[in-house]
Amino acid sequence: MPGEIDNERGNSLIARWRVLASRRLDHLVELYQSGRWKLYHEEASFLQMVQEARATLKRWEALAPPDPVLDKTVEADVAPMEEDLRDADVSADGVATEDDLRKS
Prior knowledge:
Layout: H1 2-34, H2 37-40, H3 43-63, H4 79-87
Helix pairs in contact: 1-3
């Protein structure tokens, strides 16, 4: 039993690192597509970062292949929150007036 739990934890940890490596590569691709990479990096160093991110992702994928069921990201439903914010009475400094501690 304890060995199985340790294996599950290890697999979960590896899968999380693979997901993080994938997100990093996605971020670098988005930077490239938007052209924002030029604000932060020189071309040679940016290309090296992309190559390293790809290699890292391949290593994590070899250890924990992608699983379409377990790799789903949780997305919050922000529409109700936006409606609540629109309906709230908000002052100029962004604090809801009913929560303003300066009022007595």
